[in-house]
Amino acid sequence: MRVRRVVLHRLAMPLVTPFRTSFGTETSRDVLLVEVEGADSIGWGECVAMSEPLYSSEYVEGAHAMIRSHLLPRLFAAGPDIKAEDVGGILAEVKGHQMAKAAIEAAILDGDLRAAGLSLSSSLGGVRERVAAGVSVGIATSIPALVDAVGGYLDDGYVRIKLKIEPGWDVEPVAAVREHFGPDLSLQVDANAAYTLADAAHLARLDRFGLLLIEQPLAEHDLSGHASLARRLKTPICLDESITGAAVAVDALDRGACSIVNIKAGRVGGYIEAKVIHDLCFERAVPVWCGGMLETGIGRAANVALASLPGFSLPGDTSASKRYFQRDVTEPFELESGHLAVPTGPGIGVAPIPEVLEELTTSREEIPWR
């Protein structure tokens, strides 16, 4: 892709309902979109960092500054003819900042594929025309409110429910949901690193509910603790925050720290690295699924394409647009019989609706390639 300029768009996207996890409550998304204009196409990428450094050390304002001041100058130095597969190597000397790097790589990859007339799904090796959609349910104000929320999502057609948990909000809400909706409900929980190994006996109380998995119960860097916990639980452990790249994924699996992997392209530095993780897990017959970060249609389209790969055997957090936004920046993704259609157009297959993009934009920074 012969790049001419990069445009950094900041959008304000209110959520339809507050989304509470063990690390905080979100009521809106401060979205950073990266637009890369080439000679023959325009590519789009979404930075999935949150407004504050709570899920990870990255946050939107920092990612914006990182892209402008450190990542783009290194790409400029490499010349205007940039291939998506080269972005990771060019930016490798900058430590961390995976979400910022992923947004740039995604935009260049999208532009490359649009120019070539290829879809992201086909280029990654996707095999599905639609992917099963799960939904993540935040910590509720009460157990009856939680049961009502889960019932609403099941009425919408979601095929898997994920409950956010934290100390003091775990066994009782899970028990209530399991009792109300029965043993056939595909149910899993996500702790977002809210527990320690000292909580092992308490977490073992979740074993009786037949959960698909417990996601990231312990701290991000505590692989040894997760391995010890895995030996004490019947419920499979899935890692999310811990998996920052393929090397860590291999280490975690070799240690027995997890038996299921959540793949988030933004967390691992891009869709190319995400495919590497998928491939190594597929070779080991390790189930994977696609996590979500409250993406707009830009990030959601790329995630759905990723989830079309053969190793994604569990429903992902690839919910419909209306789960989070009254109005998406792209044409909305809609649930059909519990699934989302995989875009088939060039690149990610979607683009912002110009008038909606303009209305939602809070700032726009144009950076010519130099």
Largest sheet: 7 strands, parallel
Average predicted local confidence, pLDDT:
96
Give the CATH class of the largest domain: Alpha Beta
Poorly predicted regions: none
SSE topology string: EEEHHHHEEHEHEHEHEHEHHEHEHE
Task: From the alpha carbons, calculate the radius of gyration and give it in angstroms.
Answer: 20 Å
Spatial separation of the terminal alpha carbons? 15 Å
Which outline best applies?
Answer: globular
Question: What's the CATH H-level homologous superfamily of the largest domain?
Answer: Enolase-like C-terminal domain
The CATH topology name of the largest domain reads TIM Barrel
Q: Can you list the strand order of the major beta sheet? A: 5-6-7-8-9-10-11
Report the structural category. alpha/beta
Number of strands: 13
Tally of distinct domains: 2
Strand content: 15-25%
Quickly count the helices: 13
> What CATH architecture of the largest domain would you give?
Alpha-Beta Barrel
Q: How much helix is in the residues?
A: 25-40%
